[in-house]
Amino acid sequence: MLNGQIIKGIGGFYYVDTDNGLYECRARGIFRKQNITPLVGDRVSMSVVDEETKKGVVEDIDKRDTELIRPPIANVDKALIVFAVKNPKPNLSLLDRFIVLAEKEHLEIVIILTKADLDDRNELEEIQKIYELSGYKVIPVSNKTKLNIDKVKDELKNSVVVFAGPSGVGKSSLLNEIDKNFKLQTGEVSEKIKRGKHTTRHAELLKLECGGMVADTPGFSSLTLDDISEYDLKDFFIEFDDFDGCRFGSRCIHEKEPSCAVKEAVENGEIPKKRYESYLQLLNEIRQGKRRY
Ligand code: GDP
Ligand code: ZN
Protein backbone atom coordinates (compact mmCIF):
# COMPACT_ATOMS: atom_id res chain seq x y z
CA MET A 1 0.00 0.00 0.00
CA LEU A 2 1.26 3.50 -0.90
CA ASN A 3 0.17 6.89 0.32
CA GLY A 4 -0.22 9.73 -2.11
CA GLN A 5 -2.33 12.59 -3.37
CA ILE A 6 -4.56 12.77 -6.43
CA ILE A 7 -3.24 15.54 -8.65
CA LYS A 8 -5.37 14.95 -11.74
CA GLY A 9 -8.55 13.11 -12.68
CA ILE A 10 -9.69 12.34 -16.21
CA GLY A 11 -12.41 9.98 -17.42
CA GLY A 12 -12.48 7.76 -14.34
CA PHE A 13 -8.69 7.66 -13.95
CA TYR A 14 -6.99 9.28 -11.00
CA TYR A 15 -3.34 10.24 -11.12
CA VAL A 16 -1.79 9.70 -7.71
CA ASP A 17 1.46 11.39 -6.79
CA THR A 18 3.52 9.27 -4.36
CA ASP A 19 7.12 9.10 -3.13
CA ASN A 20 7.44 6.25 -5.59
CA GLY A 21 6.30 8.25 -8.62
CA LEU A 22 2.99 8.90 -10.38
CA TYR A 23 0.40 6.12 -10.75
CA GLU A 24 -2.66 5.94 -12.97
CA CYS A 25 -5.41 4.55 -10.78
CA ARG A 26 -8.98 3.38 -10.92
CA ALA A 27 -11.12 3.88 -7.84
CA ARG A 28 -12.45 0.88 -5.93
CA GLY A 29 -16.04 0.03 -6.86
CA ILE A 30 -17.14 0.54 -3.29
CA PHE A 31 -16.72 4.31 -3.63
CA ARG A 32 -19.42 4.49 -6.27
CA LYS A 33 -21.75 2.42 -4.13
CA GLN A 34 -21.14 4.81 -1.26
CA ASN A 35 -21.64 7.75 -3.58
CA ILE A 36 -18.11 9.01 -2.99
CA THR A 37 -16.23 10.59 -5.88
CA PRO A 38 -12.50 10.91 -5.42
CA LEU A 39 -11.39 14.51 -5.89
CA VAL A 40 -8.21 16.12 -7.06
CA GLY A 41 -6.36 16.98 -3.86
CA ASP A 42 -7.58 13.89 -2.00
CA ARG A 43 -4.96 12.17 0.14
CA VAL A 44 -5.34 8.47 -0.55
CA SER A 45 -3.95 5.01 0.05
CA MET A 46 -3.46 3.02 -3.12
CA SER A 47 -2.35 -0.45 -4.07
CA VAL A 48 -0.08 -1.08 -7.02
CA VAL A 49 -1.54 -3.27 -9.77
CA ASP A 50 1.42 -3.09 -12.14
CA GLU A 51 4.70 -1.42 -11.18
CA GLU A 52 6.04 -1.53 -14.75
CA THR A 53 3.23 0.53 -16.26
CA LYS A 54 2.55 2.40 -13.00
CA LYS A 55 -1.07 1.28 -12.65
CA GLY A 56 -2.92 1.10 -9.35
CA VAL A 57 -6.17 1.25 -7.45
CA VAL A 58 -7.30 3.93 -5.01
CA GLU A 59 -8.25 1.96 -1.90
CA ASP A 60 -9.01 4.57 0.70
CA ILE A 61 -9.60 8.31 0.88
CA ASP A 62 -8.54 10.34 3.93
CA LYS A 63 -10.99 12.75 5.51
CA ARG A 64 -10.90 16.06 3.65
CA ASP A 65 -9.80 19.23 5.45
CA THR A 66 -11.48 21.48 2.89
CA GLU A 67 -13.50 20.92 -0.26
CA LEU A 68 -13.81 23.56 -2.95
CA ILE A 69 -16.51 23.32 -5.58
CA ARG A 70 -15.08 25.67 -8.19
CA PRO A 71 -12.51 24.44 -8.99
CA PRO A 72 -13.36 21.00 -7.52
CA ILE A 73 -10.33 20.38 -5.31
CA ALA A 74 -9.98 18.88 -1.86
CA ASN A 75 -7.52 19.89 0.86
CA VAL A 76 -6.63 23.33 -0.43
CA ASP A 77 -5.03 25.16 2.51
CA LYS A 78 -4.56 28.61 1.24
CA ALA A 79 -6.01 31.23 -1.09
CA LEU A 80 -3.64 33.79 -2.53
CA ILE A 81 -5.97 36.62 -3.46
CA VAL A 82 -4.32 38.70 -6.14
CA PHE A 83 -5.23 42.29 -6.98
CA ALA A 84 -3.25 44.94 -8.85
CA VAL A 85 -2.64 48.43 -7.45
CA LYS A 86 -3.33 49.78 -10.93
CA ASN A 87 -4.34 48.51 -14.41
CA PRO A 88 -6.95 47.31 -13.61
CA LYS A 89 -7.98 49.79 -10.90
CA PRO A 90 -8.45 47.84 -7.67
CA ASN A 91 -12.06 47.24 -6.74
CA LEU A 92 -11.96 46.73 -2.98
CA SER A 93 -15.53 45.61 -2.73
CA LEU A 94 -14.69 42.80 -5.15
CA LEU A 95 -11.61 41.99 -3.06
CA ASP A 96 -13.84 41.74 0.02
CA ARG A 97 -16.14 39.38 -1.86
CA PHE A 98 -13.19 37.08 -2.65
CA ILE A 99 -12.20 37.22 1.03
CA VAL A 100 -15.72 36.25 2.15
CA LEU A 101 -15.75 33.27 -0.21
CA ALA A 102 -12.32 32.11 0.94
CA GLU A 103 -13.20 32.55 4.63
CA LYS A 104 -16.33 30.52 4.07
CA GLU A 105 -14.17 27.64 2.80
CA HIS A 106 -11.90 27.95 5.86
CA LEU A 107 -8.85 28.76 3.76
CA GLU A 108 -5.88 30.68 5.04
CA ILE A 109 -5.80 33.97 3.14
CA VAL A 110 -2.87 35.99 1.84
CA ILE A 111 -3.49 39.16 -0.15
CA ILE A 112 -1.05 39.89 -2.95
CA LEU A 113 -0.94 43.38 -4.43
CA THR A 114 0.73 43.21 -7.83
CA LYS A 115 2.08 45.88 -10.18
CA ALA A 116 3.75 47.67 -7.25
CA ASP A 117 6.04 49.20 -9.88
CA LEU A 118 3.08 51.21 -11.21
CA ASP A 119 2.13 52.66 -7.82
CA ASP A 120 2.73 56.39 -8.21
CA ARG A 121 0.20 57.65 -5.68
CA ASN A 122 0.88 55.45 -2.66
CA GLU A 123 -2.34 53.57 -3.23
CA LEU A 124 -0.58 50.36 -2.37
CA GLU A 125 0.20 51.56 1.14
CA GLU A 126 -3.39 52.65 1.63
CA ILE A 127 -4.79 49.26 0.63
CA GLN A 128 -2.14 47.42 2.60
CA LYS A 129 -3.09 49.40 5.73
CA ILE A 130 -6.77 48.51 5.41
CA TYR A 131 -6.19 44.77 5.12
CA GLU A 132 -3.43 44.56 7.70
CA LEU A 133 -5.71 46.35 10.14
CA SER A 134 -8.33 43.70 9.35
CA GLY A 135 -5.79 41.02 10.25
CA TYR A 136 -4.58 39.77 6.88
CA LYS A 137 -1.09 39.24 5.58
CA VAL A 138 -0.47 41.54 2.60
CA ILE A 139 2.44 41.12 0.18
CA PRO A 140 3.22 43.87 -2.34
CA VAL A 141 4.65 42.31 -5.50
CA SER A 142 6.04 43.35 -8.83
CA ASN A 143 6.52 40.83 -11.58
CA LYS A 144 8.53 43.49 -13.38
CA THR A 145 11.08 44.41 -10.70
CA LYS A 146 10.69 40.97 -8.99
CA LEU A 147 9.78 42.64 -5.70
CA ASN A 148 8.88 40.01 -3.06
CA ILE A 149 8.67 37.05 -5.43
CA ASP A 150 10.65 35.15 -2.79
CA LYS A 151 8.04 35.98 -0.15
CA VAL A 152 5.30 34.55 -2.34
CA LYS A 153 7.41 31.40 -2.80
CA ASP A 154 7.62 31.09 0.99
CA GLU A 155 3.82 31.11 1.15
CA LEU A 156 3.62 28.28 -1.36
CA LYS A 157 6.07 25.93 0.34
CA ASN A 158 4.38 22.80 1.68
CA SER A 159 0.93 24.13 0.92
CA VAL A 160 -1.82 23.45 -1.57
CA VAL A 161 -2.92 26.84 -2.84
CA VAL A 162 -5.36 28.45 -5.23
CA PHE A 163 -4.77 31.78 -6.81
CA ALA A 164 -7.85 33.96 -7.03
CA GLY A 165 -8.51 37.41 -8.40
CA PRO A 166 -9.82 39.23 -11.44
CA SER A 167 -8.37 38.94 -14.94
CA GLY A 168 -5.40 41.05 -15.86
CA VAL A 169 -3.96 41.52 -12.37
CA GLY A 170 -0.88 39.40 -13.08
CA LYS A 171 -1.70 35.93 -11.76
CA SER A 172 -0.17 34.11 -14.73
CA SER A 173 2.86 36.41 -14.76
CA LEU A 174 3.37 35.71 -11.06
CA LEU A 175 3.22 31.94 -11.54
CA ASN A 176 5.74 32.22 -14.35
CA GLU A 177 8.06 34.12 -11.98
CA ILE A 178 7.59 31.64 -9.16
CA ASP A 179 8.48 28.60 -11.19
CA LYS A 180 10.50 28.81 -14.36
CA ASN A 181 8.89 25.57 -15.58
CA PHE A 182 5.63 27.47 -16.07
CA LYS A 183 5.16 29.13 -19.39
CA LEU A 184 1.65 30.44 -18.97
CA GLN A 185 0.36 32.85 -21.53
CA THR A 186 -0.02 36.37 -20.19
CA GLY A 187 -1.58 39.45 -21.66
CA GLU A 188 -4.84 40.87 -22.80
CA VAL A 189 -8.09 39.67 -21.31
CA SER A 190 -9.80 39.21 -24.68
CA GLU A 191 -7.15 36.77 -25.91
CA LYS A 192 -7.57 34.73 -22.77
CA ILE A 193 -11.31 34.37 -23.08
CA LYS A 194 -10.83 32.88 -26.53
CA ARG A 195 -8.19 30.55 -25.19
CA GLY A 196 -10.39 29.61 -22.25
CA LYS A 197 -12.88 27.79 -24.45
CA HIS A 198 -10.36 25.11 -25.22
CA THR A 199 -9.02 24.58 -21.75
CA THR A 200 -10.15 21.44 -19.96
CA ARG A 201 -12.81 21.56 -17.29
CA HIS A 202 -10.84 19.14 -15.12
CA ALA A 203 -9.04 20.68 -12.23
CA GLU A 204 -5.41 19.76 -11.76
CA LEU A 205 -2.76 20.40 -9.13
CA LEU A 206 0.63 21.49 -10.41
CA LYS A 207 3.71 20.64 -8.37
CA LEU A 208 5.98 23.59 -7.71
CA GLU A 209 9.76 23.61 -7.76
CA CYS A 210 9.78 25.34 -4.37
CA GLY A 211 7.57 22.63 -2.83
CA GLY A 212 3.82 22.87 -2.58
CA MET A 213 1.14 22.67 -5.21
CA VAL A 214 -1.06 25.11 -7.02
CA ALA A 215 -4.44 24.65 -8.70
CA ASP A 216 -4.22 25.13 -12.45
CA THR A 217 -7.42 27.19 -12.53
CA PRO A 218 -8.15 30.28 -10.46
CA GLY A 219 -10.32 29.86 -7.39
CA PHE A 220 -13.90 31.08 -7.00
CA SER A 221 -14.95 31.28 -10.63
CA SER A 222 -18.46 31.84 -9.28
CA LEU A 223 -18.67 34.88 -7.06
CA THR A 224 -22.28 34.56 -5.90
CA LEU A 225 -23.07 34.70 -2.22
CA ASP A 226 -26.25 32.67 -2.72
CA ASP A 227 -25.65 30.16 0.02
CA ILE A 228 -24.63 32.69 2.67
CA SER A 229 -27.40 33.97 4.93
CA GLU A 230 -27.58 37.58 6.10
CA TYR A 231 -26.89 36.31 9.64
CA ASP A 232 -23.78 34.38 8.66
CA LEU A 233 -22.09 37.07 6.59
CA LYS A 234 -20.60 38.80 9.67
CA ASP A 235 -18.63 35.64 10.49
CA PHE A 236 -16.61 36.10 7.32
CA PHE A 237 -15.46 39.59 8.28
CA ILE A 238 -12.89 38.33 10.75
CA GLU A 239 -12.07 41.70 12.32
CA PHE A 240 -15.62 41.96 13.71
CA ASP A 241 -14.73 39.07 16.01
CA ASP A 242 -12.55 41.29 18.16
CA PHE A 243 -15.56 43.35 19.19
CA ASP A 244 -18.10 41.33 21.06
CA GLY A 245 -19.75 43.96 23.25
CA CYS A 246 -22.91 44.44 21.17
CA ARG A 247 -26.07 44.84 23.25
CA PHE A 248 -27.79 42.13 21.22
CA GLY A 249 -24.78 39.87 21.50
CA SER A 250 -24.34 37.32 18.74
CA ARG A 251 -27.74 38.22 17.31
CA CYS A 252 -26.41 41.65 16.32
CA ILE A 253 -25.69 41.96 12.61
CA HIS A 254 -24.05 45.32 13.22
CA GLU A 255 -26.39 47.32 11.06
CA LYS A 256 -29.15 49.28 12.75
CA GLU A 257 -28.98 47.82 16.25
CA PRO A 258 -28.34 50.20 19.16
CA SER A 259 -25.12 49.87 21.21
CA CYS A 260 -23.24 47.96 18.54
CA ALA A 261 -19.56 47.41 19.36
CA VAL A 262 -18.68 46.88 15.71
CA LYS A 263 -20.23 50.17 14.61
CA GLU A 264 -18.37 51.92 17.44
CA ALA A 265 -15.11 50.33 16.29
CA VAL A 266 -15.77 51.63 12.77
CA GLU A 267 -16.40 55.12 14.17
CA ASN A 268 -13.13 55.22 16.07
CA GLY A 269 -11.04 53.70 13.30
CA GLU A 270 -10.39 50.27 14.79
CA ILE A 271 -12.23 48.64 11.90
CA PRO A 272 -11.57 50.07 8.41
CA LYS A 273 -14.58 52.04 7.14
CA LYS A 274 -14.14 50.60 3.66
CA ARG A 275 -14.50 47.07 4.99
CA TYR A 276 -17.63 47.94 6.92
CA GLU A 277 -19.13 49.58 3.82
CA SER A 278 -18.40 46.42 1.83
CA TYR A 279 -20.10 44.42 4.55
CA LEU A 280 -23.28 46.52 4.31
CA GLN A 281 -23.22 46.32 0.54
CA LEU A 282 -22.89 42.52 0.53
CA LEU A 283 -25.56 42.27 3.23
CA ASN A 284 -28.00 44.15 1.02
CA GLU A 285 -27.08 42.07 -1.97
CA ILE A 286 -27.82 38.88 -0.03
CA ARG A 287 -31.21 40.23 1.04
CA GLN A 288 -32.18 41.26 -2.45
CA GLY A 289 -31.11 37.90 -3.81
CA LYS A 290 -33.26 36.13 -1.23
CA ARG A 291 -36.25 38.24 -2.09
CA ARG A 292 -35.99 37.41 -5.75
CA TYR A 293 -36.08 33.64 -5.34
P1 GDP B 1 -3.84 37.40 -15.18
O1 GDP B 1 -5.02 37.59 -16.08
O2 GDP B 1 -4.19 37.73 -13.77
O3 GDP B 1 -3.21 36.06 -15.32
O4 GDP B 1 -2.76 38.53 -15.61
P2 GDP B 1 -1.46 38.38 -16.56
O5 GDP B 1 -0.37 37.69 -15.84
O6 GDP B 1 -1.86 37.84 -17.89
O7 GDP B 1 -1.04 39.92 -16.69
C1 GDP B 1 -1.86 40.91 -17.32
C2 GDP B 1 -0.99 42.03 -17.85
O8 GDP B 1 -0.35 42.72 -16.77
C3 GDP B 1 0.14 41.55 -18.76
O9 GDP B 1 0.26 42.47 -19.83
C4 GDP B 1 1.38 41.59 -17.88
O10 GDP B 1 2.56 41.84 -18.61
C5 GDP B 1 1.07 42.76 -16.96
N1 GDP B 1 1.70 42.59 -15.62
C6 GDP B 1 1.64 41.48 -14.83
N2 GDP B 1 2.30 41.69 -13.66
C7 GDP B 1 2.80 42.95 -13.72
C8 GDP B 1 3.57 43.77 -12.81
O11 GDP B 1 3.95 43.35 -11.68
N3 GDP B 1 3.87 45.04 -13.21
C9 GDP B 1 3.49 45.53 -14.42
N4 GDP B 1 3.81 46.79 -14.72
N5 GDP B 1 2.74 44.80 -15.30
C10 GDP B 1 2.41 43.53 -14.96
ZN1 ZN C 1 -23.16 44.77 16.59
Task: Describe it.
With 293 residues, the chain is α/β, with parallel strands linked by helices. It folds into three domains: 2-63, OB fold (Dihydrolipoamide Acetyltransferase, E2P), CATH 2.40.50; 68-216, Rossmann fold, CATH 3.40.50; 233-291, Probable gtpase engc, domain 3 (Ribonucleotide Reductase Protein R1, domain 1). It is 28% helix and 23% strand. The protein contains eight helices and eleven strands. α2 crosses α8. The longest helix is centred in the C-terminal third of the chain and has 20 residues, at 273-292. The termini are far apart. It binds guanosine-5'-diphosphate and zinc ion.
Count of distinct structural domains:
3
Estimated share of beta-strand residues: 15-25%
Strand order of the largest sheet: 8-7-6-9-11-10
> Can you give the helix content as a percent range?
25-40%
Superfamily (CATH H level) name of the largest domain = P-loop containing nucleotide triphosphate hydrolases
For the sheet with most strands, the description reads: 6 strands, mixed
Counted by DSSP, the helix tally is 8
Instruction: Briefly note the CATH topology name of the largest domain.
Output: Rossmann fold
Bound molecules: guanosine-5'-diphosphate, zinc ion
**Topology pattern, helix = H, strand = E:** EEEHEEEHEHEHEHHEEHH
Low-confidence stretches: 190-200
Structural class by helix and strand composition = alpha/beta
